[in-house]
Amino acid sequence: MLGKRIASSLILIGILSLSLIYNWLFALVVCLIVAGGLYEFFSMLEKKGIVIFKYCGIAIGTIIPLSVLLRFELTKGWELFFIVLACLTLILMQFRRKEHEGVVVGISTTVFGILYVAWFLSFLAKIKYLPNGTWLLLMLLLITKLGDIGAYLVGARFGKTPLIPRVSPKKSVEGAFAGLVFSILGALASKAFVPYSYFHLAFLGGFLGVLGQLGDLSESLMKRDCQLKDSSSLLPGLGGILDLMDSLIFTAPVFYFYMSIILLKN
After folding, report:
1. Rounded distance between C-alpha atoms, residue 54 and residue 110, angstroms
2. pTM of the complete model
3. What whole-number distance in Å separates Cα of residue 191 and Cα of residue 208?
């Protein structure tokens, strides 16, 4: 399992590194991540017996990062406008159903999936278009994924105290602490290519480290509700796309707002 995890991780790191260099590849990777993540999310809901318009939700969700990458905005808050339009579309599509049961649950969970997966991950594209965006995106990946690595390695070897066993029985307090330390170290290492102070970097590392672990736990909570171990078996040793990206779901939007509002205004 460890060998498969390392091999899959190295391949994905290579793809992500290349995508930061070539804009067209970055756009393709982000759209594939969002589409694949939505497919896994909606598939989990279907296993619970929730009736949703899976492919409509995937199409709506994928357009959100695509509109950011193409810099297509009808309004300043284009994504939220589009989500409102998506709600209307889903309601109209419900009229085609012969049964009226589960309408509220179906619409709510579909919209939640679009927000949780597509909108939150679309901030990866927004970060790319910030000044010095490629390096900022690299810093985000370094902070978040080093936290994942540290939590896994230390937790698997030294973890003894369960963190929240009812949500994720294998996660430990020792692993969570190690993940936080690794995130801070990743942030400090980013000083080599970003011009921010060590104070800001340490703060970001700690704050994003906590958010990354909350993202991981939130997906674990949903998988537990759906009685699944992994979101899919697409990536050997890692699980599915959501399993890989869960820690970025919360860190990406917070990182974007922090950089665009606080640091880049100075």
Report:
1. 8
2. 0.88
3. 16
| pLDDT tens digits, 164-174 | 888 888 889 99
Instruction: With CA atoms as reference, report the closest residue to 189 among 153, 149, 135, 247.
Output: 135
Contacts of 86 (CB under 8 A, 6+ apart): 60, 111, 114
Q: What is the C-alpha separation between 97 and 94, in angstroms, rounded? A: 5
Q: Which of 52-56, 76-80, 116-120, 218-222 has the lowest mean pLDDT?
A: 76-80
Strand partners, 177: none
C-alpha 120/C-alpha 33 separation (Å) is 12
Low-confidence winner among 11-20, 180-189, 220-229, 244-253 (lowest mean pLDDT): 11-20
Amino acid at 90: L
Residues in the chain: 266
Q: What percent of the chain has pLDDT over 70?
A: 87
Q: Domain containing 188: what range?
A: 2-263
Name residue 235's beta-bridge partners: 239
HSE, CB side, 13 Å, CA atoms: give it for residue 249. 25
d(CA 256, CA 29): 19
What is the number of structural domains in the chain? Answer: 1
Return the number of other C-beta atoms located less than 10 Å from residue 208's C-beta. Answer: 29
